[in-house]
């Protein structure tokens, strides 16, 4: 299943990202903020655990998110600000890393580096702002399944309908929570209207 956010604050923030006057620092902070909102939507009925805490009036049993069951995995580079944002909400969550780059001629993704903690019994929150052809996400999910991920939830900011369809066909069991779905891919496999290259926008580079 995929779920596009209906939150008008999310739309507002996505449109800040589209504006080329939004420079890299604000761009990253906006991705952080959007990621926290989308993560809250995705985790709204996630498993909880009872914990005993010390309150100002003594001990109390409270319901807490079972953060130990989560692993946050950004697809670098562009996924990095998503991790930074979600770690502000869930500072004790574990993280893993995949560094991937799409070949801009063939649009095929390549994995350059991975560092993934044990995934048995874990739910992976896979973080990448962009789903264009869907190739990078499909390859990342395949890799994480081989590593034993029990469940994978994809958090994304912008996607093209073609890419989302491709991910769903390849991995029916993966839920996608996305801020906004755009119109289409252009001839260079970029999302339109989109926001350009998310990695370049975030880190002030030009690929
Ligand atoms: O759906 P696809 O067609 O695979 O394209 C989407 C991928 O492209 C972007 O990363 P990119 O390869 O540009 O790397 P970067 O994060 O270093 O900019 C984006 O963050 C996705 O990972
Ligand atoms: O539109 C796109 C497509 C791929 N990667 C991006 O960052 N943006
Ligand atoms: Mg890029």
TrEMBL record:
<comment type="function">
    <text>Catalyzes the conversion of uracil and 5-phospho-alpha-D-ribose 1-diphosphate (PRPP) to UMP and diphosphate.</text>
</comment>
<comment type="pathway">
    <text>Pyrimidine metabolism; UMP biosynthesis via salvage pathway; UMP from uracil: step 1/1.</text>
</comment>
<keyword id="KW-0021">Allosteric enzyme</keyword>
<dbReference type="GO" id="GO:0006223">
    <property type="term" value="P:uracil salvage"/>
</dbReference>
<dbReference type="Pfam" id="PF14681">
    <property type="entry name" value="UPRTase"/>
</dbReference>
<dbReference type="InterPro" id="IPR029057">
    <property type="entry name" value="PRTase-like"/>
</dbReference>
<keyword id="KW-0808">Transferase</keyword>
<protein>
    <recommendedName>
        <fullName>Uracil phosphoribosyltransferase</fullName>
        <ecNumber>2.4.2.9</ecNumber>
    </recommendedName>
</protein>
<dbReference type="InterPro" id="IPR050054">
    <property type="entry name" value="UPRTase/APRTase"/>
</dbReference>
<dbReference type="InterPro" id="IPR000836">
    <property type="entry name" value="PRTase_dom"/>
</dbReference>
<keyword id="KW-0342">GTP-binding</keyword>
<dbReference type="GO" id="GO:0004845">
    <property type="term" value="F:uracil phosphoribosyltransferase activity"/>
</dbReference>
<keyword id="KW-0547">Nucleotide-binding</keyword>
<comment type="similarity">
    <text>Belongs to the UPRTase family.</text>
</comment>
<dbReference type="GO" id="GO:0005525">
    <property type="term" value="F:GTP binding"/>
</dbReference>
<dbReference type="InterPro" id="IPR005765">
    <property type="entry name" value="UPRT"/>
</dbReference>
<keyword id="KW-0328">Glycosyltransferase</keyword>
<dbReference type="GO" id="GO:0044206">
    <property type="term" value="P:UMP salvage"/>
</dbReference>
<feature type="domain" description="Phosphoribosyltransferase">
    <location>
        <begin position="7"/>
        <end position="205"/>
    </location>
</feature>
